[in-house]
Design brief:
The complex is a heterotrimer of chains A (505), B (425) and C (130).
Chain A: H1 11-16, H2 68-79, H3 102-108, H4 111-114, H5 126-143, E1 147-149, H6 155-172, E2 179-183, H7 189-196, E3 200-204, H8 214-224, E4 228-234, H9 246-255, E5 259-263, E6 283-285, E7 306-308, E8 320-324, E9 327-331, H10 348-384, E10 400-403, H11 414-423, E11 430-431, E12 440-443, H12 451-470, H13 473-478, H14 490-495
Parallel strand pairs in A: 2-3, 2-4, 4-5, 5-6
Antiparallel strand pairs in A: 1-7, 6-7, 8-9, 10-12, 11-12
Chain B: H1 8-18, H2 48-60, H3 83-89, H4 92-95, H5 107-124, E1 128-129, H6 136-151, E2 156-158, H7 164-174, E3 181-183, E4 193-197, H8 209-218, E5 221-226, E6 243-247, E7 263-267, E8 280-284, E9 290-294, H9 301-304, H10 317-355, E10 360-361, E11 369-373, H11 378-387, E12 394-395, E13 400-404, H12 411-424
Parallel strand pairs in B: 2-3, 2-4, 4-5, 5-6
Antiparallel strand pairs in B: 1-7, 6-7, 8-9, 10-11, 11-13, 12-13
Chain C: E1 9-10, E2 15-20, E3 23-28, H1 30-36, E4 39-43, E5 50-51, E6 56-62, E7 66-70, E8 75-80, H2 89-93, E9 102-106, H3 118-129
Antiparallel strand pairs in C: 1-2, 2-3, 3-9, 4-6, 5-8, 6-7, 8-9
């Protein structure tokens, strides 16, 4: 067990110390470091022009005052309290935390991309439009769906776009279809999106194998028939399995005129191996910040392109990029479109990164991505299935699912394993998701981890299982010990929310 | 392939361990007849040098605002970004971290989110701000949906001169709710909210006082929207509003051809539980140390599913960091001074354009953007000036042109613009 | 866990009801609060609304979960436990007394007949745990 050093201090010196321990540096909020008169940007002297805003000039904003070195030190210290992919294995299931190449960052910062204004005339942005067009073609080829929009800002925004397209298509058929089927293992964004689009949700149960229970699904389709707008399925699903009935599901949906929506969050497992469009999928969203490695950035920005069938193409949001001969232009005059889903043209900066990533891999490399991602996850599964409970038999796709079932009598839970992993230097896997599996631990190593790195993680997991057997809950409830902060009081945070800094009275 | 660490020997050893002969056996659940028999019809992999060469060639085909005098605003503004900002956001620990769901190893992200929320709340005069939305337009659309939830009413009234992309985005989102968008300079009876943009799309700032009163009379919520966050450094805080939304792109984020931007969302504390998006809160850890954690999660999709306040998950965390670093550098005095500097440059631009004798200023008041009337079709003028390497502004149709100035607009730029404009008019 | 008081009636969704004249007081059981963990927020119904047996009329939230509370009885909400606004932990501490959620003026007393007795509820929980 890791020991926490005891600071050498007496009661008096403790008051004066900032609380640092070795490389664990404490840091206060900038508000608590503010001193009137400090600043971190030198601006030219004002000329003293009389205001023409027609409004009184604002006197107080409520910002701290600090110098540039303080700002740099502050954020460097904050960064040192974070775990990152660059620093270590990040096995968050269904999040695809893979290596983020620096080349992509460099290219996105070229002034010819980064310093473009979205309202510039198309004649001055031909290179940018060509890039968008090229990326659309790559994605269309990979998903087997001819219509692509790059406008959505993130995966959930892509879902929203896709479901609005479906809604619009149904209206265009003069039909009313109030129901959307959602698999019970789906990400929360699926039901939330369907609801935002005004649909009623009917949940489709998973079977004992972690897959959509086809019979139950078919029964629901027979029952609701032409009231069904779409079925939202993540494939590979959140149990890390490929929905092997996928083509039957598609056929059944199409037989009642409903659409098949595929959440592409887990596309990394199949990119270059099989195309959702070939499986009967009508609409799918990509998460460029997962499959195509644009950095997650502590919570975005992402990019959530959507692919659709030929039939649905005309409903895609504006603007669209059109190629006329050798020139490209942005088109907004699209009478059937669902309209605009955000300002301007989408997260262009993420498109540059994603295309750089895809060109680096090429057709051969992208196929390898899926193969290595699946191989790595199965290798993990193979070595951990004897140690942890595995809810579903057979091979997994790009992520493997374990549970805490066998640790119950030791009173060690999935949460404890997660906190134990933190203590041993790893970001935990996705925990308690999917909801359909009790005590779920969803591990996605990705293709950018080496066998050596996997072996180290496997050994750590086995060690934690051994600790659970031998030491039990008392040891685990202490974890983590060596982190900048120990377990947090989330109840206190939620009962009396403090959501901003307040000046001490 | 340089990003894939497994060697062929590793792969073989791993396949052996698993007990399969080749990797395709692991794809056994995929219908065999649907598996691609060949590689996708795409180019093969490229080295770093080749990718860089190809994409740099595309970048060079564009006329970028770093080398061309630019006067386009219209919801995206060219501002200086201090070198420190990009250095900080490129630190691995921020750039390649996930959403801070494991707070013990994500205090860095959580602490800047807490600072970010405080900055946004203080700047907007609201009690609470969330950890960001996609952009100003989607923030506004989400604000309208939130007003519908709070008031249990359907319709939304929009004041004149809302940014057209914001309006179109609002229309797309509203199409799902059964509510109508009405237009007027006061809230319609029984509307959920009244939306006013200030400065509006044509550049005119508005005081909220009268609108507050009108909203109280109809029981509607007052939503204040902005596209230029820097205006909050000079114009009064929109504290009378119930919800304030806008875009924070001007601070630290850059243009990026329109995205990513930075959606800001703030409101009065009584509406906190109806807010969309993530919230970071302060608490303690097991040792009693001050700590930060994502809180009030039960509003969100990963817990509430179809009953969530929004479907949003990933937002624009790294842009929020860029904003926080830049705002920290500016500080109380710098932020206000930068705003005034922008206003001065805009005044200078207005005077220089009027002095040509061929340009009529439409605004009596403005912050850093205003509308002018030219003597010719403005779309043609924009095209002509683009050929001369000047990005003239945003054509509003007819002879009207929307132009803006920022601290990056030099006196030389203004002189060149005025001179060239005079030549073509 | 506290035993289910014998003077109350119970549902399979772990709500309890106490009858006083034609006023029913509704809360959630000790078993429910224990499985939810520390409660951080309670969303109360509006006083004056009419609810029908089976409606979700309140929400109790822990840090990681939000659960609807379903009313087993129909009628008009006459009073809600405002103190839960500041102190949701009262449900954790005293689920059967201070932690009550709402009072309802019953429109159909017979609905209570379909509910479980304390003994039946205890038996039901034992089965769930087995």
């Amino acid at each position: 067990m890791t020991m926490t050093a005891t600071p050498l201090n007496t009661a008096e010196t403790k008051l004066a110390l900032p609380g640092h321990q070795g490389l664990k540096l404490e840091e206060k909020l900038l508000f608590d470091q503010s001193r009137e008169g400090s600043y971190g940007v030198d601006l030219p002297t004002l000329k003293g022009t009389t205001s023409r805003t027609g409004q009184p000039v604002r006197e107080t904003v409520g910002l701290p005052e600090v110098s540039e070195p303080q700002v740099v030190r502050h954020f460097v210290r904050l960064s040192q309290m974070n775990y990152s992919i660059d620093g270590g294995l990040f096995p968050l299931g269904s999040c695809t935390m893979k290596h983020n190449p620096r080349l992509n960052e460099k290219l996105a910062r070229l002034p010819g991309f980064a310093a473009l204004h979205p309202m510039q005339p198309d004649s001055t942005t031909q290179g940018a439009l060509e890039l968008v067009h090229t990326l659309e073609n790559w994605l269309a080829e990979l998903c087997g769906l001819p219509g692509i929009t790059l406008a959505p800002a993130a995966g959930a925004h892509g879902e929203l776009t896709g479901m609005l397209v479906i809604k619009k298509a149904i209206e265009a058929r003069n039909e009313t279809r109030p129901i959307v089927l959602v698999s019970d293992s789906a990400h929360g964004t699926n039901p939330a999106t369907a609801r935002t689009c005004g649909f009623d949700i009917v949940s489709v149960p998973s079977g004992d194998d972690g897959l959509v229970d086809y019979d139950a699904f078919a029964e629901l389709v027979d029952k609701h028939g032409k009231d069904i707008a779409a079925f939202m399925v993540t494939n590979p699903n959140t149990c890390g399995r490929f929905e092997k009935d996928v083509t039957r599901i598609a056929d059944k949906l199409h037989s009642v005129g409903a659409y098949f929506y595929c959440d592409g969050a887990n596309f990394n497992a199949i990119v270059g191996k099989v195309r959702p469009g070939d499986l009967g999928v009508d609409v799918m969203q990509f998460n460029l910040h997962k499959t195509f490695s644009t950095p997650h950035g502590g919570g975005g920005p992402g990019c959530g392109p959507v692919g659709v069938t030929e039939e649905l193409k005309k409903f895609l949001p504006i603007p669209k990029v059109q190629k006329d001969g050798d020139t490209f232009k942005l088109v907004t005059d699209c009478p059937h479109s669902i309209g605009r889903i955000k300002a301007f043209h989408g997260h262009f900066g993420m498109m540059v990164r994603a295309l750089a990533y895809m060109m680096s891999h090429g057709a051969d490399g992208l196929q390898r991505v899926a193969e290595d991602a699946v191989l790595n996850a199965n290798y993990m599964l193979h070595h951990l299935k004897g140690t942890f409970n595995v809810p579903f038999k057979g091979y997994c796709m790009h992520e493997c699912l374990l549970t805490d079932k066998h640790l119950k009598d030791k009173h060690v839970s999935t949460l404890d394993i997660a906190k134990g992993l933190i203590e041993y230097g790893y970001h935990p896997m996705t925990v308690y998701f999917p909801l359909v599996v009790s005590g779920a631990m969803l591990i996605e190593p990705t293709e950018t981890e080496s066998k050596q790195s996997l072996d180290e993680f496997i050994n750590t997991m086995k060690h934690l299982a051994h600790l659970a057997e031998t030491k039990g809950e008392d040891t685990f409830k202490q974890f983590p010990l060596s982190t900048p902060r120990r377990r947090l009081d989330e109840v206190k945070a939620a009962r009396q929310p403090i959501l901003k800094w307040e000046k001490p009275e | 392939m340089r990003y894939l660490p497994n060697t062929d020997a590793d792969r073989k050893a791993m396949l052996n361990a698993i007990g399969v002969a080749n990797v395709n056996e692991l794809f056994a659940d995929v219908p065999a007849d649907k598996m691609l028999k060949t590689l996708p019809d795409l180019p093969m992999h490229l080295g770093e040098q080749q990718v860089e060469a190809q994409l740099s060639a595309l970048a060079r085909k564009n006329l970028n605002t770093a080398e061309a005098p630019s006067f386009i605003g219209a919801g995206s503004y060219r501002h200086h970004v201090p070198a420190t900002v990009d250095y900080i956001i490129q630190r691995s620990e921020f750039l390649t971290a996930y959403t801070p769901y494991q707070p013990e190893i994500a205090q860095g992200t959580l602490m800047y989110l807490f600072e970010f929320q405080t900055y946004v709340a203080n700047m907007t005069g609201m009690d609470v701000a969330n950890a960001s939305m996609y952009d100003g337009a989607t923030s506004l659309a989400e604000a309208a949906l939130m007003a519908q939830r709070v008031t249990k009413r359907k319709n939304i009234t929009v004041a004149p001169n809302l940014h057209p992309h914001y309006l179109e985005t609002l229309q797309t989102y509203m199409a799902t709710t059964g509510g109508e968008i009405l237009f007027g300079d006061k809230p319609s009876a029984d509307c959920a909210a009244f939306i006013i943009q200030s400065p509006d799309f044509l550049g005119t700032p508005h005081s909220l006082e009268g609108y507050r009163k009108a909203c109280d009379e109809t029981g509607s919520m007052l939503i204040h929207a902005f596209t230029e966050v820097l205006s909050l450094g000079m114009l009064p805080a929109p504290a009378e509003a119930d919800i304030v939304v806008g875009d924070g792109q001007s601070i630290g984020v850059g243009l990026n051809y329109g995205g990513p931007h930075l959606g800001l969302f703030a409101c009065k504390s009584k509406f906190t539980r109806q807010m969309p998006g993530r919230l970071c809160g302060k608490t303690e850890d097991a040792d009693g140390k001050e700590s930060y954690v994502l809180t009030l999660n039960t509003r969100e999709q990963h817990i509430r599913r179809e009953k969530a306040t929004s479907n949003i998950c990933t937002n624009v965390g790294l842009c929020a960091l860029a904003f926080t670093v830049h705002m920290s550098l500016l500080g109380e005095k710098g932020f206000k001074k930068l705003a005034q500097l922008n206003h001065e440059r805009a005044c200078m631009l207005a005077d220089a354009l009027e002095a040509t004798g061929k340009v009529k200023l439409e605004n009596s008041t403005f912050f850093n953007e205003f509308t002018v009337e030219l003597t010719k079709d403005s779309a043609d003028v924009v095209k002509q000036l683009a050929e001369k390497g000047i990005l003239a502004g945003y054509s509003l149709g007819g002879k009207r042109l929307l132009v803006s100035a920022t601290e990056l607009t030099s006196e030389d730029d203004i002189a060149t613009f005025a001179k060239t404009l005079k030549e073509v008019l | 866990m506290a035993d289910a008081p014998v003077h109350l009636k119970y549902t399979t969704d772990h709500e309890w009801v106490e009858l006083n004249g034609d006023i029913a007081t509704i809360g959630i059981t000790a078993y429910a609060q224990e499985s939810l963990g520390d409660l951080v927020f309670v969303e109360l119904p509006e006083v004056g609304i009419t609810i029908t047996s089976g409606d979700d009329f309140a929400v109790v939230e822990s840090v990681k979960a939000a659960s609807e509370v379903y009313t087993p009885v129909s009628g008009e909400v006459t009073e809600t436990n405002e103190e839960l606004g500041d102190s949701p932990e009262m449900i954790n501490e005293n689920p059967y007394t201070d932690g009550w959620i709402a009072k309802v003026k019953l429109s159909d007393k017979s609905e209570l007949d379909e509910m479980m007795t304390a003994e039946e509820y205890q038996e039901y929980i034992n089965q769930l745990e087995a």
